[in-house]
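Q: Could you write out the predicted structure for this multi-component system? I'm mainly interested in how the pieces pack against one another.
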Amino acid sequence: MSYVALYRKFRPVDLSQVKGQDHIVTTLRNQLAKSKVGHAYLFTGTRGTGKTSTAKILARAVNCEHPTPDGPCGECDICRGIADGSALNVFEIDAASNNGVDNVRTIIDGVDYRPTTGRYKVYIIDEVHMLSDSAFNALLKTLEEPPEWVIFILATTEVHKLPATILSRCQRYDFKRISIETIVDRMKELMEAEGREADERALRYIARKADGSMRDALSLLDQCVAFQAEGTLSYDKTLEVLGAVDTEIFSRLYRGIINRDTLGCVSIIDDMTMQGKELTQFVTDFVWYLRNVMLVTASSEASKMIDLSTENMVRLREDAGMSELDSVIRYIRVFSELVGQIRYAAQKRVYVEIAFIRCCEPRMAIRDPESLTDRVAALEKKFEEGSFSYAAAPSSAKSDEPVIRQDIKMPEAPKALPDDVRKLIENWPGVISDCANDMMGSVRSCKPVLGEDGKLILYFPSGDMGARMLNNPPLRDNLSEIFEDHVGSKVDFSIQETESEEMFDGGLYDLRNMVKPGTMNVPIDTEENMEDF
Ligand SMILES: Nc1ncnc2c1ncn2[C@@H]1O[C@H](COP(=O)(O)OP(=O)(O)O)[C@@H](O)[C@H]1O
Ligand SMILES: [Mg+2]
Ligand SMILES: [Zn+2]
């Protein structure tokens, strides 16, 4: 007999086997018990969560000769007829391949005639969002007033593509992503039915990878089982079969960051690119690795919650011992931001490299207070190694080690003159690119203007959140420091809102016309120019 994939072999046959959708199962049970079924259902939700299976169960349940609380009996002629496809009253249409108006007409033409067997004619239209406009219109007419013997069950993963006219005529059921727990339990059941054993951790790993889809979980399980024909399905084997990106690479990258080995990190990325690895996925996985490092750094008990082979776990523990929790959290932040940035970027690799450089060289993030931890650690290390001393202080200015500005008492800077302000405004793109991420958005949305009194005014479109954000003392002080870095004097500034839209069109930089409207080059990593970068 040919091999049948697990997810097909174990398609739920009644409501008791539909897992993780209790809200839907309960409602359907009640309707069936009271014989109050609707005439148009819409099943939505991610793939592999049970929409088609439930539609088939419902189609049998309404026709079954001896229905049970779980739906169809599975034994009567009608149940069997539907199961083997010989019954003439259940119609399954895949709208993905039959999306034209003619396809819909063919179906609908039969609607007017009572079923010859069973009570209802049930039309299951899968991937209904694929129907063409005219096909929808044809369907709509029938949905408006279906004959009493007709039930439509529409299923789709993309409910937002359906016209409101269709939505308003259906009872809608949202199929949820299925929890890891529920998926693991189901897999255990099926493994038992198959006479196989599996490590709990192996099943958990598969369930996590399936991301809420039972079908994906079962396909993955299939791969693992096929690979390991007998014996207990072990955790290490599972990792191997599913080609989990070798965590050793992540560990090497992590150590590269700790040792400030920018070049090493960049060359690993080079290798990954050569191997054709998808960088967004790669960075996502690296964030997950860092998360594991973080958990183990925070508590050694955490290893239980982490999916790693024994060998890799040893390495992870070593990694966790190498850094402060704060630093790890900072890396996680840098790389999670990166995931969002590179998703649609053309030059992903450049962004990935920048992120590694940011982590390797804490000075690059000089205004990011979190990088202080790294910079202090670097200094401490230098002290410990004896390569840093007060006597040598004058030469330390040339040293590569980070200098901690906060430690140095700076003399009060002179107040800025209008010329300084003008200089600052002319170099506004530079100011923006010096801002830390949490501030950059706000600074970008304002227009710097040299006021009548020679002072800087930051104008925000009225109601803009940026105005409120920048008025916060920490951000305000931070910005003030950036200004000072740029012009060498203390720039007083006010934050104002304006209704004037022209102000943001370009042009009006300077109420006294002292500054010519400069070209506002947007710095490299803005969202707007990400695509064509
Ligand atoms: N909620 C669920 N409970 C049990 N098995 C499920 C569930 N959802 C999906 N499956 C498994 O995945 C397979 C495909 O499910 P299906 O109902 O076609 O998903 P959908 O139509 O939502 O994409 C089923 O045959 C079954 O093995
Ligand atoms: Mg389906
Ligand atoms: Zn039956």
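A: Regarding packing and overall arrangement: Residues 7-8, 10-12, 17-21, 47-53, 155, 175, 178, 186, 214-215, 218 surround adenosine-5'-diphosphate (ligand 1) (CB under 6 Å).
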